[in-house]
């Protein structure tokens, strides 16, 4: 007669008579503890190491621990394996300077800034003086060419120009130094139109005779 195992809410206990920590019982016999397995490394297949045991040819020494701690404290060793950015290089270089080096660097930088400001100030002063002197001598300066001032006009609102030229480039021409071309140009700056006519150089004008 089979003894039915009691169930609680449909769940049947797996081992009713066993206690926690005991060995499994299969067919009335205890299972033996699993044998200790061995691990074979890839670098040395002939050598057999037990799990949890240090290799006799490579044990962790105090020097390894010291190097590991030093690499954590030293930022140069910590970043040696990867390429540092330009910002990180400047930061490491700045952190590596001593107090005296930082003071000398500030003095040199301040001296260069002061010299640059002095040179710019002296150059600007001389430039302004030169403009004033040239304006007094020439009654104007080269900055006038960028000014947009209207030209002088006559009573008709037009600006008139006399254009003359010579024949100095023609050696065989008689009277090469005389005026070879005489033209009058009249411009209306409001209507944006221009008129020009030429006057022969042999034209005789009875004026002042």
Number of strands: 7
Strand count, sense and barrel status of the largest sheet are: 3 strands, antiparallel
Main sheet: strand order? 5-6-7
SSE-based structural type: alpha+beta
Our Rg estimate from Cα atoms comes to 53 Å
Average pLDDT number: 70
Count every helix, treating DSSP H or I runs of 4 or more residues as helices. 4
Helix content: 25-40%
Low-confidence stretches: none
SSE pattern, N- to C-terminal:
EEEEHHHHEEE
Overall spatial form: rod-shaped
How far apart are the termini? Answer: 166 Å
Indicate the proportion of strand residues: 15-25%
Essential attributes:
209 residues, alpha+beta, three-stranded antiparallel beta sheet, two-stranded antiparallel sheet, 4 helices, 7 strands, rod-shaped
Give an account of the 3D structure.
With 209 residues, the protein is of the alpha+beta class. It has a domain at 150-199. 32% of the residues lie in helices and 17% in strands. It has 4 helices and 7 strands, in the order E-E-E-E-H-H-H-H-E-E-E. Strands 5-6-7 form a 3-stranded antiparallel beta sheet, with no helix packed on it. Strand 1 and strand 2 form a beta hairpin.
Q: How would you concisely characterize the structure shown here?
A:
With about 210 residues, this protein is an alpha+beta fold.
Detail the topology: elements first, then pairings:
Blueprint: E1 25-26, E2 29-30, E3 38-40, E4 48-50, H1 62-73, H2 75-78, H3 86-95, H4 99-138, E5 159-166, E6 179-188, E7 193-199
Antiparallel strand pairs: 1-2, 3-4, 5-6, 6-7
């Amino acid at each position: 007669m089979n003894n039915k195992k009691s169930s609680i809410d449909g769940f049947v206990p797996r081992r009713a008579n066993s206690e926690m920590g005991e060995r499994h019982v299969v067919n009335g016999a205890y299972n033996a503890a699993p044998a200790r397995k061995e691990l074979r490394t890839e670098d040395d297949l002939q050598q057999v190491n037990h799990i949890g045991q240090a290799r006799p040819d490579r044990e962790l020494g105090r020097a390894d621990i010291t190097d590991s701690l030093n690499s954590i404290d030293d930022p140069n060793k910590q970043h040696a394996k990867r390429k540092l950015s330009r910002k990180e290089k400047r930061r490491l270089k700045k952190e590596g300077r001593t107090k005296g080096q930082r003071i000398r660097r500030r003095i040199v930088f301040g001296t260069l800034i002061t010299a640059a400001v002095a040179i710019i100030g002296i150059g600007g002063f001389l430039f302004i003086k030169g403009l004033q002197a040239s304006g007094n001598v020439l009654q104007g300066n080269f900055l006038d060419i960028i000014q947009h001032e209207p030209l002088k006009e006559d009573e008709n609102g037009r600006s008139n120009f006399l254009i003359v030229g010579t024949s100095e480039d023609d050696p065989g021409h008689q009277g090469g130094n005389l005026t070879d071309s005489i033209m009058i140009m009249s411009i209306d700056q409001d209507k944006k139109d221009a008129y020009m006519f030429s006057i022969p150089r042999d034209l005789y004008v009875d004026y002042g005779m």
